[in-house]
Amino acid sequence: MKKRLVIVILLVLCGLVILSCGKKISFDHYGVYVKGNDGFHEILNNYENSNVILHNDTSTQIQYKTALEIYVYSPQSKTHDYKLFVPFFLPDADDVDLFDILENEDFIEVKLTVSPLEKQNDIVKLTANITSYSGPLILFTTKENRGYLFNSKNLLSDELEKDETTKLIEEITNSYRMTQSIQNSRQSIISDLQTYGAQVMQYYRTPLNQGGGGSSISKGDESKIASYIGWEDSSTITDNGTFSLSIIRSNSVQIVGVGTVIGNDGNNNVSATITVSCTSRSPLSTKVNN
After folding, report:
1. Measuring CA to CA, which residue among 114, 239, 125, 255 is closest to residue 185?
2. Which ranges of 43-163 would DSSP assign to H, the alpha helix?
3. pTM of the model
4. Which of 23, 109, 186, 202 is the most exposed place for a label (fewest CB within 10 A)?
């Protein structure tokens, strides 16, 4: 009797395993679906003037525990070439132009394993070679130039040792963000310097009786120039950095701007200098120091 009971239990368990293995994945309509811990999430895309516009809805994270799985349900799913990108930088906008990211190479490619599902001709399973990554991802189908942007969150990322791909992504992303921060700070400094340089030229050309230099600048005029361009002293501090003004020779003014982030040398803040040669045909000359 006990043997029969054991056999029946084993048969039932085998049947359940067979049913589980034979269960098909199905979707209501064609599309791209990411398998999350709470089920499947459809990822949308859009087109505008022949450009691929990605919906920048990365506030919603698709949570997963182990490998990241993406399913493409399409009549041409098995003929497409697929690429998965980790973007280094996403504009702070509702929509993102995919080709801007591709042309600027602002991404790292993640290896994908493509597995067509048996007896389901229209569905392809894509498995990402990342096991501990959390952040934005872009799936790109090269033949159709379609892009799909979504945000992933690995629930075990704090417990798992980071895989090599994730380590590389973080290293490159951090380096890219640092580079972007340096470039942004430097550009802000240069923009301000050019504004101040133009104001110095305006001071030089303004008659004496109107508060200007009357076509003459001499050493000791720093405070007059500073007052004219809106500074309280020969130096000023703004949100973009610190600026200091000096007269290096007759009719020649130099302004140095120092930004708020460490520059390329890794030790000193970004900086640039503009030299205003008032009697020159091209009076403004800008130089990047760091």
Report:
1. 239
2. 98-104
3. 0.52
4. 23
